[in-house]
């Protein structure tokens, strides 16, 4: 039985461990610095990002119906979190808002609010994926050059330090680290080598994931630099920085709990509602995008995902974690690494938990430049030139919403960019319906005015102009047989034309709609 058939016929998530194990490892390597970076950018304790990542892997993935989506702390929420902690006065008060936000998401799931995910145009979703890919590349260029002044999780265009995505790259060019550049180039070469079709067929290369080799090689190269080329060696500020925890008891001591005494504070509920709405939108967007990337084209249940996210946020808030969503960066890394089922997301959560207790010292040796290479390649696969060519070939109605969504996300943030893309997409939908609603055919002085599909007030001006252009003495057939709905405004325009047609010596024949709107189509 083929892998695809076995996936569709059996829910056994353990049967694909040979794919999900390596994928979970790769997602763990990608997620670890992002969890820490997002916590730092959010003004929250570093450990809160790791907790959210663990909950996203172990809790959300267990309840989710998606086989490939990976959840964790979301970069898109950093500004909201930063402002909310400041407004509420303490991180403990903010955690209570996270718990309530989770409860709201759980309720939204039961109310079947996930249906909103069906209303995002394909061109906008593809634009979002390409934009995320470009953001990954642009944001990792400074880390590739050894300029690590900003945390990994900072993906906003305008940064808290006054810089932006492009000015940060120029700053990196003035602060080059030859050691970081060398490690990044070696890492990129390894990933490209692993992706070659002839290489991937060999057993070793198919079993061992390239990102693991990149991480180990990055550690090894930097250790060689320390010993033989100290001028190229990377210091701790250029490496992963994970809090050191000796055992599970110390792990428990790192947990922070909500301040339930703030339950009556109305500001808590304003933050909670804001978090619930934005986290739900980001999740539904990421879920839709993940389904599009899924090579097996499975469709994830949206309402179940809202419930899973709600449970996850309640658990995360209760033990000191940041709010979380389904995250397209982790999900893309998961798919790119060959994951088949949700077991890969669960494995990534388990590895995050084990790593902070068992091997934090080893993880703190990983160069950020090596991780930058991994994320740059993920970004390139999301924003391949072939995708731009494909969208261009589909016409301006698809291409413009696609590129405008990309530009808007690059220059603002995910939700603002998606909103702009949606508005542009809606414009082209209206324009398409506007052009197709009325069809005029002329044969000498004979005119056929055909009303197609729904004809609304938006077509009123075009129909009136069409009637004004018809010359005296013409014969006109107005055919509404194919129209499902004829707006009252349109009916009035037709009635006015019929009433004045005798004065212009125009003969009019009406073919009525077969729909229930016949009474609007009068002579």
Automatic annotation (TrEMBL):
The chain crosses the membrane at residues 21-40, 46-63, 91-111, 123-141, 176-194, 203-226, 268-290, 311-333, 345-378, 399-430. It comes from the Bacteria. It is a multi-pass membrane protein. It is found in: Membrane. InterPro entries: SLC26A/SulP_dom, SLC26A/SulP_fam. Keywords: Membrane, Transmembrane, Transmembrane helix. The keyword Transmembrane applies. Residues 17-394 form the SLC26A/SulP transporter domain. PANTHER family: SULFATE TRANSPORTER (PTHR11814). This is SulP family inorganic anion transporter.
């Amino acid at each position: 039985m083929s892998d695809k058939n076995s996936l569709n016929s059996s829910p056994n998530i353990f049967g694909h461990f040979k794919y999900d194990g390596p994928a979970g490892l790769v997602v763990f390597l990608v997620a670890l610095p992002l969890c820490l970076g997002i916590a730092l950018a959010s003004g929250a304790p570093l450990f809160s990002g790791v907790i959210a990542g663990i909950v996203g892997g172990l809790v959300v993935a267990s309840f989710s119906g998606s086989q490939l989506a990976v959840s964790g702390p979301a970069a898109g929420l950093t500004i909201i979190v930063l402002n909310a902690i400041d407004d509420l006065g303490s991180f403990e008060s903010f955690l209570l808002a996270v718990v309530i936000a989770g409860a709201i998401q759980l309720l939204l799931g039961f109310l079947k609010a996930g249906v909103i995910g069906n209303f995002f145009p394909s061109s906008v979703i593809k634009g979002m994926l390409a934009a995320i890919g470009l953001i990954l590349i642009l944001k990792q260029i400074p880390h590739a050059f050894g300029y690590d002044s900003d945390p990994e999780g900072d993906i906003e265009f305008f940064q808290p330090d006054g810089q932006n995505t492009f000015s940060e790259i120029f700053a990196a060019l003035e602060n080059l680290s030859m050691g970081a550049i060398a490690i990044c180039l070696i890492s990129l070469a390894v990933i490209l080598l692993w992706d070659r079709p002839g290489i991937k067929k060999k057993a070793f290369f198919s079993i061992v994931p390239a990102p693991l080799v990149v991480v180990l090689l990055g550690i090894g190269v930097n250790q060689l630099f320390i010993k033989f080329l100290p001028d190229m060696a990377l210091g701790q500020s250029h490496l992963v920085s994970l809090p050191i925890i000796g055992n599970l008891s110390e792990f428990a001591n790192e947990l922070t709990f909500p301040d339930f005494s703030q339950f009556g504070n109305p500001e808590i509920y304003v933050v909670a509602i804001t978090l619930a709405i934005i986290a739900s939108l980001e999740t539904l967007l990421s879920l839709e995008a993940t389904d599009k990337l899924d090579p097996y084209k499975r469709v994830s249940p949206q309402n179940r995902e809202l419930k899973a996210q709600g449970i996850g946020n309640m658990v995360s808030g209760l033990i000191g974690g940041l709010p979380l969503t389904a995250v397209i960066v982790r999900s893309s890394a998961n798919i790119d690494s060959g994951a088949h089922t949700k077991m890969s997301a669960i494995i990534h959560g388990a590895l995050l938990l084990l790593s902070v207790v068992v091997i934090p010292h080893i993880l703190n040796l990983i160069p950020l430049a090596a991780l930058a290479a991994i994320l740059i390649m993920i970004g390139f696969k999301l924003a391949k030139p072939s995708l731009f060519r494909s969208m261009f070939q589909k016409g301006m109605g698809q291409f413009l919403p696609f590129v405008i969504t990309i530009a808007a996300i690059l220059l603002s943030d995910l939700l603002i960019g998606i909103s702009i893309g949606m508005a542009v997409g809606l414009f082209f939908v209206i324009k398409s319906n506007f052009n197709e609603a009325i069809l005029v055919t002329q044969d000498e002085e004979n005119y056929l005015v055909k009303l197609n599909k729904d004809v609304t007030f938006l077509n009123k001006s075009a129909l009136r102009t069409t009637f004004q252009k018809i010359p005296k003495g013409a014969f006109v057939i107005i055919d509404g047989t194919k129209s499902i709905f004829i707006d009252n405004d349109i009916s009035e325009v037709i009635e006015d034309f019929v009433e004045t047609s005798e004065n212009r010596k125009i003969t009019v024949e009406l073919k009525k709609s077969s729909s229930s709107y016949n009474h609007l189509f009068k002579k």
